Amino acid sequence: MNPLVVVTGGTKGIGRTIAGKFVTEGFDAVVCARSVEGIHGSGLLPVAADLSTRSGVNTLLDYIHSLKRPVDVLVNNTGIFHPGQIHNEAEGTFEQLMNTNVASAYHLTRGLVGDMIARRQGHIFMMCSTASITAYTNGGSYCISKFALLGMSRVLREELKSHDVKVTAILPGATLTASWEGTDLPEERFLKPEDVADSVWAAYSLSKSAVIEEIIIRPQLGDI
């Protein structure tokens, strides 16, 4: 039986590329997003769920548990971005971003990590951002959520290291995905999704006695 990876936000951009990388390397991949239309192929197990809600997280957990297979890798990649500033962003922006970018990872991790601890095996990746360490003027609640996600990654690392469960935070800069459609900037100003996926795979591929705690990936010419 193939090992199993779970990738949230796994139907486009970075998430889909990560899922594809792991499938290429012999994994089966549970991919989750609000819509999974058009997601099919060998090794892909699509699940439609809105992970910004607790019921959506439970839908995904119920499906994973129904497989009766251990989860070897969890990639908490679900996330949304709304530009704005704390003092003037729309009411409800904070709650939406915290629920989607942070609470989804918190509840999904809690639902899966017990088995990893019992097996003394597993790797959890948190898709943070350079916004996790840099306060952007127009970042608002997005920056808050990404700072929080990095904090959760560091707490998890301390909690789980004695259980042989690895935790890695990925902090990519601007990556050329659908969110940048219409930009006038040249491609070379961006990371490629494959850069992030290859970094995740490289971190996973280390020996059992080693872990990469945090990976910062920026465009060669710097942040945008």
Automatic annotation (TrEMBL):
InterPro entries membership: NAD(P)-bd_dom_sf, Sc_DH/Rdtase_CS, SDR_fam
Gene Ontology molecular function, alphabetical: oxidoreductase activity
Record's keyword terms, sorted: Oxidoreductase
E.C. number(s) listed in UniProt: 1.-.-.-
Transmembrane helix keyword on record: no
Transmembrane segments: none
Any matching Pfam family: adh_short
Family in the record: Belongs to the short-chain dehydrogenases/reductases (SDR) family.
Protein name: SDR family oxidoreductase
